[in-house]
Design brief:
The complex is a heterodimer of chains A (about 110) and B (about 110). Chain A is mainly β. Helices cover about 0% and strands about 60% of the residues of chain A. Chain A contains no helices and 11 strands. In chain A, the strands form 2 sheets. In chain A, strands 2, 4, 5, 6, 9, 10 and 11 form a 7-stranded mixed beta sheet that branches. In chain A, strands 1-3-8-7 form a 4-stranded antiparallel beta sheet, with no helix packed on it. The termini of chain A are far apart. Chain B has about 110 residues and is an all-beta fold. Helix content of chain B is about 0%, strand content about 50%. Chain B is built from no helices and 10 strands. The radius of gyration of chain B is 13 Å and the shape is globular. The chains are: A mainly beta (about 110), B mainly beta (about 110). Chains A and B meet through strand 4, strand 5, strand 9 and strand 10 of A and strand 3, strand 4, strand 8 and strand 9 of B.
Chain lengths: ~110, ~110
């Protein structure tokens, strides 16, 4: 069966520090991969998605970036965090077919101080 | 980018059915309708999806209007564990596989 791993679960970082969040998927090949962010009390905002290795589409211009160095690995990064980057970050995957659902990881709660 | 409209909040009594509505008037013929729910401090959980016909699974039923411009998620007997935010979204294959979430419906279940 397929599983998705996302870490760390919680993170407290000072303003201006770098960020690296990692997500891996097991049990499937060539998945679509997604990064979402959820601010406190808000809905989910799609940040990046990827349909293959090295293929990244950005939905929202900001100081975050994403990379997909391997088929089932998706990384969210920032060189310098802002206070506004605080939130709940969620990685998700789906098959390529349009009738395939999204499967989410457990999320990373990021607090920028 | 969200293409669906849902009420912000709804309440239901425990053990009664719940009908959660969703409007998607701009749906295209290739869009699947997906429903997810999110418990506090957790990632969203897949509930059900469909294209044209009504769908049933162990968690819920999905009723899709004949013109596909609206749908309803039906929880047959609400329990306290069903209290969550429910999201209705469209999977748009035509524009690159994005899933856009709106603000969802916050369901409160009253004991």
């Amino acid at each position: 069966s397929q599983t998705i791993h996302q870490w760390p679960a919680t993170l407290v970082q000072p303003v201006g520090s770098p960020l690296s969040l990692e997500c891996t998927v097991e049990g499937t090949s060539n998945p679509n991969l997604y990064w979402y962010r959820q601010a406190a009390g808000r809905g989910l905002q799609l940040l990046f998605y990827s349909v293959g290795i090295g293929q990244i589409s950005s939905e929202v211009p900001q100081n975050l970036s994403a990379s997909r160095p391997q088929d089932r690995q998706f990384i969210l990064s920032s060189k310098k965090l802002l206070l506004s980057d605080s939130g709940f970050y969620l990685c998700a995957w789906s098959e390529g077919q349009r009738n395939s659902p999204l499967h989410f990881g457990n999320g990373t709660r990021l607090t920028v101080t | 980018d969200a293409k669906t409209t849902q009420p912000n909040s709804m309440e239901s009594n425990e053990e009664e059915p719940v009908h959660l509505p969703c409007n998607h008037s701009t749906i295209s013929g290739t869009d699947y309708i997906h429903w997810y729910r999110q418990l506090p401090s957790q990632g969203p959980e897949y509930v059900i999806h469909g294209l044209t016909s009504n769908v049933n699974n162990r968690m819920a039923s999905l009723a899709i209007a004949e013109d596909r411009k609206s749908s309803t998620l039906i929880l047959h007997r609400a329990t306290l564990r069903d209290a969550a935010v429910y999201y209705c979204i469209l999977r748009d294959q035509g524009t690159g596989n994005q899933f856009y979430f709106g603000t969802g419906t916050s369901l409160t279940v009253i004991p």
